[in-house]
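Bug #2210: token dump truncated for Fatty acid hydroxylase?
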Amino acid sequence: MSRIKIMFGHAGVSLMALAAVVAFVAMLWGAPLWCWALVPLGVAAQMLNEYNLHRHVFHLAPPKRQWAFDLLYRAHYGHHDFPTNHGLFFVPLWVALPMLVGNFLLVWGIVALLGFEASIWIATAIVPLGGVLTFLGYEWFHMTAHLTVPKTAVERHVTRLHNQHHFRDFNKWFHVSPGGEIIDRAMGTDINTEALKQQQRIAFIRTLGMRPDDPRLLAARARFAGKYGLSEAEVARAARG
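Reproduced locally. Full output below:
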């Protein structure tokens, strides 16, 4: 299965791609030329958003209530639990869409309050164009990091760093997009080469520190196994760690 088919077979990715296309066409149709210079601002904002969402939301302490745990499991815990499952590679639609709408309205509102007449075009350049294109790049590189496929030098670099997050220390290397490691280094969540040589693989790394047979994990696996094609053997193996 090709990477394009895997990626755009996910509803959230397809919808976000459509939003970027609509934004691009709309900008061509009516945006002042200078607004295009703001697209890189959307790229930078999304890079920060990617880091903060991954570190501070997706790696929240496991909720005690099962319904809340299930939400977090689908959003991210499940991806660590089954890192090669294609269905769990991508940000869910119910996370991506509210963030797109919320960020757009936030930027539009702030810029309008500041008195810019082209506020809607400024918000369009920053969020559904620059931001969403960066989001799609993240989804591509993240997916590629988990697939055994021929990779470019940049993709191999991303894979090497992301593997450290999954299989060495889940509290490090939160960024995935190329260049994002600058943010990890600035925030102190990188692993330098010498430290990596000494660092041992932490216990229960695939379950983000939880015991693999935690009742919340067992319930979440049972709930999502059918949807994501997890076999009984895979679920049983995950419970053993």
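Output looks complete on our side. The CA atoms of residues 4 and 58 lie 25 Å apart. Marking as cannot-reproduce; reopen if the truncation happens again.
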